[in-house]
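FAQ
Q: What does a multi-component entry look like?
A: The components come first, one per line:
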Amino acid sequence: MNINITEFKARRQKLITSMTEGIAIIFTAPEVIRNRDSHYSYRFDSYFYYLTGFKEPESVVIIVAGNEPKSILFCRDKDLEREIWDGFRYGADAARDTFDFDETYSINELDVVVLKLLANQPKLYFSLGESDVNDSRVTGWLNALRTQARNGVAVPDEVGDVRKLIDEMRLYKSPYEIDLMRRSGAIAARAHNRAMQFVKPSMMEYEVEAEFLHEFYRSGAQAPAYTSIVAGGANACTLHYSANNAKLHEGDLLLIDAGCELEGYASDITRTFPVNGKFSSAQKEVYELVLAAQHAAISQVNITSHWNAPHEAALDVLIQGFIDLKLCKGSKDAVLESGDYRQFYMHRTGHWLGLDVHDAGEYKATKSKENLANWRMLEPNMTLTVEPGCYIRPADNVPKHFWNIGIRIEDDVLVTEHGCEVLTSNAVKSVADIEALMQASRLKLMT
Ligand code: CA
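Then the predicted structure of the entire assembly, as C-alpha coordinates:
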Protein backbone atom coordinates (compact mmCIF):
# COMPACT_ATOMS: atom_id res chain seq x y z
CA MET A 1 0.00 0.00 0.00
CA ASN A 2 1.54 3.31 -1.08
CA ILE A 3 1.32 6.07 1.50
CA ASN A 4 -0.45 9.13 0.13
CA ILE A 5 2.18 11.62 1.34
CA THR A 6 0.62 14.62 -0.41
CA GLU A 7 -2.73 14.06 1.25
CA PHE A 8 -1.34 13.68 4.78
CA LYS A 9 0.82 16.78 4.27
CA ALA A 10 -2.17 18.77 3.02
CA ARG A 11 -4.10 17.81 6.18
CA ARG A 12 -1.29 19.15 8.37
CA GLN A 13 -1.32 22.34 6.32
CA LYS A 14 -5.07 22.63 6.79
CA LEU A 15 -4.72 22.21 10.54
CA ILE A 16 -2.04 24.93 10.56
CA THR A 17 -4.48 27.22 8.76
CA SER A 18 -7.33 26.55 11.17
CA MET A 19 -5.08 26.99 14.23
CA THR A 20 -3.82 30.36 12.89
CA GLU A 21 -1.29 30.47 15.75
CA GLY A 22 0.08 28.31 18.55
CA ILE A 23 1.25 24.73 18.75
CA ALA A 24 -0.55 21.38 18.62
CA ILE A 25 0.75 18.20 20.23
CA ILE A 26 -0.81 14.89 19.19
CA PHE A 27 0.29 11.59 20.70
CA THR A 28 -0.38 8.28 19.02
CA ALA A 29 -1.95 5.44 21.02
CA PRO A 30 0.16 3.45 23.49
CA GLU A 31 0.84 -0.24 23.10
CA VAL A 32 -1.31 -2.19 25.55
CA ILE A 33 -0.27 -5.35 27.37
CA ARG A 34 -2.73 -8.22 26.95
CA ASN A 35 -1.08 -10.52 29.45
CA ARG A 36 2.42 -10.89 30.83
CA ASP A 37 4.70 -9.84 27.96
CA SER A 38 2.35 -10.02 24.99
CA HIS A 39 0.51 -7.02 23.63
CA TYR A 40 -2.88 -6.49 22.07
CA SER A 41 -2.61 -6.07 18.35
CA TYR A 42 -1.46 -2.46 17.91
CA ARG A 43 -3.83 0.22 16.63
CA PHE A 44 -2.57 3.80 16.16
CA ASP A 45 -4.57 6.81 17.36
CA SER A 46 -6.97 7.99 14.66
CA TYR A 47 -6.18 11.71 15.03
CA PHE A 48 -2.44 11.09 14.94
CA TYR A 49 -2.75 8.80 11.93
CA TYR A 50 -5.03 11.26 10.11
CA LEU A 51 -2.23 13.85 10.21
CA THR A 52 0.74 11.61 9.59
CA GLY A 53 -0.02 8.29 7.89
CA PHE A 54 2.53 6.93 10.39
CA LYS A 55 1.64 3.65 12.08
CA GLU A 56 4.45 3.07 14.60
CA PRO A 57 3.75 3.26 18.34
CA GLU A 58 5.73 5.67 20.58
CA SER A 59 5.28 8.57 18.17
CA VAL A 60 4.18 12.16 18.61
CA VAL A 61 3.47 14.82 16.00
CA ILE A 62 3.84 18.51 16.78
CA ILE A 63 2.36 21.13 14.52
CA VAL A 64 3.46 24.73 14.83
CA ALA A 65 1.27 27.42 13.24
CA GLY A 66 1.96 31.15 12.85
CA ASN A 67 4.80 32.91 11.06
CA GLU A 68 7.07 29.90 10.81
CA PRO A 69 4.72 26.95 10.42
CA LYS A 70 6.20 23.46 10.56
CA SER A 71 5.33 19.88 11.38
CA ILE A 72 7.63 17.71 13.43
CA LEU A 73 7.54 13.98 14.04
CA PHE A 74 9.05 12.20 17.02
CA CYS A 75 9.47 8.45 16.55
CA ARG A 76 11.37 5.41 17.73
CA ASP A 77 15.07 5.06 16.88
CA LYS A 78 16.35 2.61 14.36
CA ASP A 79 17.40 -0.37 16.49
CA LEU A 80 18.77 -3.44 14.76
CA GLU A 81 18.38 -5.61 17.85
CA ARG A 82 14.70 -4.63 18.31
CA GLU A 83 14.04 -4.87 14.57
CA ILE A 84 15.32 -8.46 14.54
CA TRP A 85 12.72 -9.29 17.20
CA ASP A 86 9.80 -6.99 16.40
CA GLY A 87 10.20 -5.80 12.82
CA PHE A 88 11.04 -2.71 10.81
CA ARG A 89 11.22 0.81 12.28
CA TYR A 90 11.70 3.93 10.19
CA GLY A 91 13.83 5.92 12.59
CA ALA A 92 13.88 9.72 12.46
CA ASP A 93 15.85 10.20 9.21
CA ALA A 94 13.90 7.79 7.01
CA ALA A 95 10.61 8.96 8.53
CA ARG A 96 11.41 12.56 7.59
CA ASP A 97 12.26 11.62 3.99
CA THR A 98 9.41 9.15 3.51
CA PHE A 99 6.61 11.14 5.19
CA ASP A 100 7.90 14.60 4.27
CA PHE A 101 8.03 16.25 7.70
CA ASP A 102 9.91 19.51 8.21
CA GLU A 103 11.81 17.99 11.12
CA THR A 104 12.00 14.61 12.82
CA TYR A 105 13.59 13.58 16.11
CA SER A 106 14.04 10.50 18.22
CA ILE A 107 11.17 10.08 20.67
CA ASN A 108 13.86 10.11 23.37
CA GLU A 109 14.52 13.78 22.59
CA LEU A 110 10.89 14.80 23.04
CA ASP A 111 11.19 16.21 26.58
CA VAL A 112 14.05 18.49 25.57
CA VAL A 113 12.87 19.60 22.12
CA VAL A 114 9.27 20.17 23.15
CA LEU A 115 10.29 22.86 25.67
CA LYS A 116 11.96 24.87 22.92
CA LEU A 117 8.89 24.49 20.72
CA LEU A 118 6.44 25.40 23.49
CA ALA A 119 8.33 28.49 24.66
CA ASN A 120 6.57 31.75 23.80
CA GLN A 121 3.68 30.06 22.01
CA PRO A 122 0.36 31.86 22.70
CA LYS A 123 -1.81 28.76 22.59
CA LEU A 124 -1.45 25.02 23.08
CA TYR A 125 -3.78 22.54 21.39
CA PHE A 126 -3.94 18.96 22.59
CA SER A 127 -6.40 16.23 23.62
CA LEU A 128 -6.84 17.25 27.25
CA GLY A 129 -8.43 14.50 29.35
CA GLU A 130 -7.91 11.68 26.86
CA SER A 131 -5.03 10.06 28.72
CA ASP A 132 -3.80 10.64 32.29
CA VAL A 133 -0.27 9.83 31.19
CA ASN A 134 -0.27 12.42 28.40
CA ASP A 135 -2.06 14.99 30.56
CA SER A 136 0.58 14.80 33.25
CA ARG A 137 3.38 14.83 30.69
CA VAL A 138 2.07 18.02 29.12
CA THR A 139 1.48 19.59 32.54
CA GLY A 140 5.07 18.68 33.40
CA TRP A 141 6.35 20.49 30.31
CA LEU A 142 4.30 23.59 31.07
CA ASN A 143 5.59 23.63 34.66
CA ALA A 144 9.16 23.20 33.46
CA LEU A 145 8.67 26.20 31.18
CA ARG A 146 7.27 28.28 34.04
CA THR A 147 10.54 27.86 35.93
CA GLN A 148 12.19 29.67 33.02
CA ALA A 149 9.79 32.59 33.28
CA ARG A 150 12.43 34.73 34.95
CA ASN A 151 14.53 34.34 31.79
CA GLY A 152 11.70 35.93 29.84
CA VAL A 153 10.11 32.72 28.54
CA ALA A 154 6.34 32.92 28.10
CA VAL A 155 4.13 29.88 28.70
CA PRO A 156 1.03 29.27 26.52
CA ASP A 157 -1.81 30.80 28.51
CA GLU A 158 -4.57 29.22 26.50
CA VAL A 159 -5.27 25.52 25.97
CA GLY A 160 -7.64 24.30 23.25
CA ASP A 161 -8.84 20.86 22.20
CA VAL A 162 -7.07 19.86 19.01
CA ARG A 163 -9.72 17.20 18.35
CA LYS A 164 -12.33 19.87 17.74
CA LEU A 165 -10.33 21.27 14.83
CA ILE A 166 -9.55 17.86 13.33
CA ASP A 167 -13.10 16.50 13.81
CA GLU A 168 -14.47 18.97 11.28
CA MET A 169 -11.76 17.98 8.79
CA ARG A 170 -12.37 14.26 9.29
CA LEU A 171 -16.10 14.61 8.69
CA TYR A 172 -15.60 15.35 4.98
CA LYS A 173 -13.94 12.44 3.22
CA SER A 174 -11.44 12.99 0.40
CA PRO A 175 -11.45 10.88 -2.80
CA TYR A 176 -8.56 8.90 -1.28
CA GLU A 177 -10.59 8.13 1.85
CA ILE A 178 -13.74 7.36 -0.13
CA ASP A 179 -11.81 4.88 -2.24
CA LEU A 180 -10.59 3.12 0.93
CA MET A 181 -14.10 3.12 2.41
CA ARG A 182 -15.55 1.62 -0.79
CA ARG A 183 -12.96 -1.13 -0.63
CA SER A 184 -13.50 -1.68 3.09
CA GLY A 185 -17.26 -1.90 2.42
CA ALA A 186 -16.77 -4.31 -0.47
CA ILE A 187 -14.67 -6.68 1.66
CA ALA A 188 -17.20 -6.66 4.49
CA ALA A 189 -20.07 -7.15 2.04
CA ARG A 190 -18.32 -10.20 0.60
CA ALA A 191 -17.89 -11.58 4.12
CA HIS A 192 -21.62 -11.23 4.83
CA ASN A 193 -22.51 -13.02 1.61
CA ARG A 194 -19.98 -15.70 2.50
CA ALA A 195 -21.64 -16.19 5.90
CA MET A 196 -25.06 -16.61 4.30
CA GLN A 197 -23.68 -19.35 2.08
CA PHE A 198 -21.81 -21.02 4.93
CA VAL A 199 -24.31 -21.15 7.78
CA LYS A 200 -26.48 -24.14 8.58
CA PRO A 201 -28.44 -25.38 11.62
CA SER A 202 -26.39 -26.77 14.53
CA MET A 203 -23.34 -24.67 13.72
CA MET A 204 -21.86 -22.50 16.48
CA GLU A 205 -21.92 -18.70 16.25
CA TYR A 206 -18.11 -18.59 16.44
CA GLU A 207 -17.81 -20.81 13.38
CA VAL A 208 -19.59 -18.12 11.41
CA GLU A 209 -17.43 -15.43 13.03
CA ALA A 210 -14.38 -17.33 11.78
CA GLU A 211 -15.68 -17.03 8.21
CA PHE A 212 -15.69 -13.25 8.64
CA LEU A 213 -12.13 -13.14 9.93
CA HIS A 214 -11.09 -15.41 7.06
CA GLU A 215 -12.63 -13.13 4.45
CA PHE A 216 -11.30 -9.95 6.11
CA TYR A 217 -7.68 -11.06 6.35
CA ARG A 218 -7.47 -12.82 2.99
CA SER A 219 -8.77 -9.60 1.39
CA GLY A 220 -6.04 -7.45 2.93
CA ALA A 221 -8.02 -5.84 5.75
CA GLN A 222 -5.83 -5.38 8.83
CA ALA A 223 -8.49 -6.18 11.45
CA PRO A 224 -12.18 -6.34 12.22
CA ALA A 225 -13.28 -2.72 12.73
CA TYR A 226 -14.94 -3.70 16.03
CA THR A 227 -15.90 -6.88 17.87
CA SER A 228 -18.19 -8.80 15.53
CA ILE A 229 -21.72 -9.50 16.76
CA VAL A 230 -22.82 -12.96 15.65
CA ALA A 231 -26.15 -13.44 17.37
CA GLY A 232 -28.45 -16.38 16.75
CA GLY A 233 -32.12 -16.40 17.78
CA ALA A 234 -32.86 -14.54 21.02
CA ASN A 235 -29.25 -13.34 21.25
CA ALA A 236 -30.06 -10.85 18.48
CA CYS A 237 -32.20 -8.95 21.01
CA THR A 238 -29.04 -8.18 23.01
CA LEU A 239 -27.79 -5.12 21.14
CA HIS A 240 -24.09 -5.51 21.95
CA TYR A 241 -24.01 -9.32 22.16
CA SER A 242 -20.42 -10.45 21.72
CA ALA A 243 -20.13 -13.90 23.34
CA ASN A 244 -20.65 -15.53 19.91
CA ASN A 245 -20.61 -18.98 21.50
CA ALA A 246 -24.15 -20.33 21.16
CA LYS A 247 -25.53 -22.98 18.86
CA LEU A 248 -27.58 -21.89 15.83
CA HIS A 249 -30.95 -23.56 15.64
CA GLU A 250 -33.18 -24.55 12.74
CA GLY A 251 -35.90 -21.92 12.47
CA ASP A 252 -33.89 -19.11 14.11
CA LEU A 253 -32.63 -15.92 12.54
CA LEU A 254 -28.96 -14.98 12.69
CA LEU A 255 -28.03 -11.30 13.11
CA ILE A 256 -24.46 -10.42 12.18
CA ASP A 257 -23.02 -6.95 12.74
CA ALA A 258 -19.46 -7.07 11.43
CA GLY A 259 -17.11 -4.88 9.42
CA CYS A 260 -13.41 -4.63 8.72
CA GLU A 261 -10.70 -2.00 8.91
CA LEU A 262 -8.71 -1.25 5.76
CA GLU A 263 -5.76 1.14 6.12
CA GLY A 264 -7.55 2.60 9.14
CA TYR A 265 -11.00 2.91 7.55
CA ALA A 266 -13.97 1.04 8.96
CA SER A 267 -16.89 -0.66 7.30
CA ASP A 268 -19.91 -1.47 9.44
CA ILE A 269 -22.58 -3.81 8.05
CA THR A 270 -25.43 -5.71 9.66
CA ARG A 271 -27.38 -8.44 7.92
CA THR A 272 -30.02 -10.74 9.41
CA PHE A 273 -30.96 -14.01 7.74
CA PRO A 274 -32.56 -17.38 8.54
CA VAL A 275 -30.20 -20.13 9.74
CA ASN A 276 -31.97 -22.68 7.52
CA GLY A 277 -32.11 -20.41 4.46
CA LYS A 278 -35.86 -19.72 4.52
CA PHE A 279 -37.67 -16.95 6.44
CA SER A 280 -40.77 -18.02 8.42
CA SER A 281 -43.84 -15.88 7.76
CA ALA A 282 -43.48 -14.00 11.09
CA GLN A 283 -39.76 -13.43 10.48
CA LYS A 284 -40.49 -12.24 6.97
CA GLU A 285 -43.14 -9.77 8.18
CA VAL A 286 -40.74 -8.12 10.60
CA TYR A 287 -37.83 -8.28 8.15
CA GLU A 288 -39.78 -6.56 5.38
CA LEU A 289 -40.77 -3.85 7.85
CA VAL A 290 -37.18 -3.15 8.89
CA LEU A 291 -36.07 -3.22 5.25
CA ALA A 292 -38.80 -0.73 4.29
CA ALA A 293 -37.64 1.50 7.17
CA GLN A 294 -34.07 1.26 5.91
CA HIS A 295 -35.09 2.16 2.35
CA ALA A 296 -37.03 5.15 3.68
CA ALA A 297 -34.03 6.24 5.74
CA ILE A 298 -31.54 5.87 2.86
CA SER A 299 -33.82 7.92 0.61
CA GLN A 300 -33.34 10.75 3.13
CA VAL A 301 -29.56 10.68 2.80
CA ASN A 302 -29.02 13.69 0.56
CA ILE A 303 -27.92 17.29 0.80
CA THR A 304 -31.43 18.62 1.39
CA SER A 305 -31.72 16.60 4.64
CA HIS A 306 -30.44 17.29 8.13
CA TRP A 307 -28.68 14.63 10.22
CA ASN A 308 -31.84 13.36 11.89
CA ALA A 309 -33.99 13.05 8.75
CA PRO A 310 -33.04 9.40 8.02
CA HIS A 311 -33.84 8.48 11.65
CA GLU A 312 -37.20 10.22 11.48
CA ALA A 313 -38.04 8.48 8.18
CA ALA A 314 -37.13 5.07 9.62
CA LEU A 315 -39.13 5.74 12.76
CA ASP A 316 -42.17 6.75 10.75
CA VAL A 317 -42.18 3.44 8.85
CA LEU A 318 -41.36 1.34 11.92
CA ILE A 319 -44.09 2.85 14.10
CA GLN A 320 -46.77 2.28 11.44
CA GLY A 321 -45.48 -1.29 11.12
CA PHE A 322 -45.54 -1.88 14.88
CA ILE A 323 -49.18 -0.77 14.89
CA ASP A 324 -50.05 -2.98 11.90
CA LEU A 325 -48.32 -5.99 13.52
CA LYS A 326 -50.19 -5.28 16.78
CA LEU A 327 -46.98 -4.65 18.68
CA CYS A 328 -48.06 -1.09 19.52
CA LYS A 329 -51.52 0.34 20.11
CA GLY A 330 -52.93 3.76 19.19
CA SER A 331 -52.23 6.28 16.48
CA LYS A 332 -48.81 6.86 14.94
CA ASP A 333 -48.52 10.23 16.66
CA ALA A 334 -49.53 8.74 20.02
CA VAL A 335 -46.92 5.96 19.76
CA LEU A 336 -44.24 8.48 18.76
CA GLU A 337 -45.25 10.80 21.59
CA SER A 338 -45.41 8.10 24.29
CA GLY A 339 -42.19 6.44 23.12
CA ASP A 340 -43.91 3.01 23.26
CA TYR A 341 -41.99 2.04 20.11
CA ARG A 342 -38.80 1.98 22.20
CA GLN A 343 -39.79 -1.46 23.49
CA PHE A 344 -38.84 -2.70 19.99
CA TYR A 345 -36.55 0.00 18.59
CA MET A 346 -34.37 1.60 21.22
CA HIS A 347 -31.36 2.91 19.29
CA ARG A 348 -30.72 5.60 16.72
CA THR A 349 -30.56 4.97 12.99
CA GLY A 350 -26.90 5.73 12.35
CA HIS A 351 -23.60 7.41 13.12
CA TRP A 352 -20.69 8.97 11.24
CA LEU A 353 -18.25 6.42 9.86
CA GLY A 354 -14.56 6.71 8.96
CA LEU A 355 -11.27 6.10 10.77
CA ASP A 356 -13.38 5.31 13.83
CA VAL A 357 -16.51 3.18 13.60
CA HIS A 358 -18.34 5.90 15.51
CA ASP A 359 -16.47 8.58 13.67
CA ALA A 360 -15.54 12.12 14.61
CA GLY A 361 -17.83 15.07 13.95
CA GLU A 362 -20.66 16.98 15.54
CA TYR A 363 -24.26 15.97 14.83
CA LYS A 364 -25.70 19.34 15.77
CA ALA A 365 -25.03 22.53 13.86
CA THR A 366 -24.56 24.44 17.10
CA LYS A 367 -24.36 23.39 20.71
CA SER A 368 -26.84 26.01 21.87
CA LYS A 369 -29.10 24.68 24.60
CA GLU A 370 -32.05 26.71 23.36
CA ASN A 371 -32.06 24.98 20.01
CA LEU A 372 -31.52 21.29 20.71
CA ALA A 373 -33.16 20.26 17.45
CA ASN A 374 -30.63 22.15 15.38
CA TRP A 375 -29.29 19.14 13.47
CA ARG A 376 -26.56 19.84 10.94
CA MET A 377 -27.33 19.43 7.26
CA LEU A 378 -25.88 16.49 5.36
CA GLU A 379 -23.18 17.56 2.91
CA PRO A 380 -21.30 15.87 0.08
CA ASN A 381 -18.52 13.47 1.16
CA MET A 382 -19.89 12.79 4.64
CA THR A 383 -20.16 9.06 5.40
CA LEU A 384 -22.64 7.50 7.78
CA THR A 385 -24.38 4.25 8.63
CA VAL A 386 -28.10 3.64 8.19
CA GLU A 387 -29.22 0.88 10.54
CA PRO A 388 -32.82 0.57 11.66
CA GLY A 389 -33.81 -2.54 13.59
CA CYS A 390 -36.52 -4.30 15.55
CA TYR A 391 -35.92 -6.41 18.65
CA ILE A 392 -38.85 -8.33 20.10
CA ARG A 393 -38.24 -9.82 23.53
CA PRO A 394 -40.88 -12.15 25.01
CA ALA A 395 -43.54 -10.03 26.74
CA ASP A 396 -47.22 -10.26 27.66
CA ASN A 397 -48.19 -7.53 25.19
CA VAL A 398 -46.49 -9.26 22.25
CA PRO A 399 -48.00 -11.97 19.99
CA LYS A 400 -46.03 -15.14 20.69
CA HIS A 401 -45.02 -15.85 17.08
CA PHE A 402 -42.85 -12.70 17.17
CA TRP A 403 -40.95 -13.60 20.35
CA ASN A 404 -37.13 -13.49 20.10
CA ILE A 405 -37.07 -12.06 16.61
CA GLY A 406 -34.20 -9.56 16.43
CA ILE A 407 -33.46 -7.84 13.12
CA ARG A 408 -31.13 -5.05 12.08
CA ILE A 409 -30.16 -4.04 8.56
CA GLU A 410 -27.18 -1.71 8.27
CA ASP A 411 -25.36 -0.17 5.33
CA ASP A 412 -22.63 2.43 4.92
CA VAL A 413 -23.66 5.43 2.89
CA LEU A 414 -21.77 8.31 1.26
CA VAL A 415 -23.57 11.62 0.78
CA THR A 416 -23.08 12.83 -2.81
CA GLU A 417 -24.03 15.98 -4.75
CA HIS A 418 -27.09 14.25 -6.16
CA GLY A 419 -28.21 11.88 -3.39
CA CYS A 420 -26.12 9.12 -1.93
CA GLU A 421 -24.02 6.07 -2.72
CA VAL A 422 -24.45 2.88 -0.68
CA LEU A 423 -20.87 1.69 -0.17
CA THR A 424 -21.96 -1.76 1.01
CA SER A 425 -24.61 -2.54 -1.59
CA ASN A 426 -22.91 -5.82 -2.56
CA ALA A 427 -24.14 -7.44 0.65
CA VAL A 428 -27.33 -9.27 -0.30
CA LYS A 429 -30.37 -7.76 1.40
CA SER A 430 -33.85 -8.51 0.01
CA VAL A 431 -35.70 -11.60 1.23
CA ALA A 432 -35.69 -13.05 -2.30
CA ASP A 433 -31.96 -12.42 -2.82
CA ILE A 434 -30.99 -13.82 0.59
CA GLU A 435 -33.07 -16.97 0.10
CA ALA A 436 -31.77 -17.43 -3.45
CA LEU A 437 -28.14 -17.08 -2.37
CA MET A 438 -28.59 -19.46 0.56
CA GLN A 439 -30.53 -21.94 -1.58
CA ALA A 440 -27.87 -21.88 -4.32
CA SER A 441 -25.10 -22.62 -1.83
CA ARG A 442 -27.06 -25.58 -0.44
CA LEU A 443 -27.56 -27.02 -3.93
CA LYS A 444 -23.84 -26.63 -4.54
CA LEU A 445 -23.13 -28.62 -1.36
CA MET A 446 -25.42 -31.44 -2.50
CA THR A 447 -23.87 -31.84 -5.94
CA1 CA B 1 -22.83 -1.78 13.29
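Q: Is there any commentary attached?
A: Sometimes. For this entry: The chain has two domains: 5-169, 171-446.
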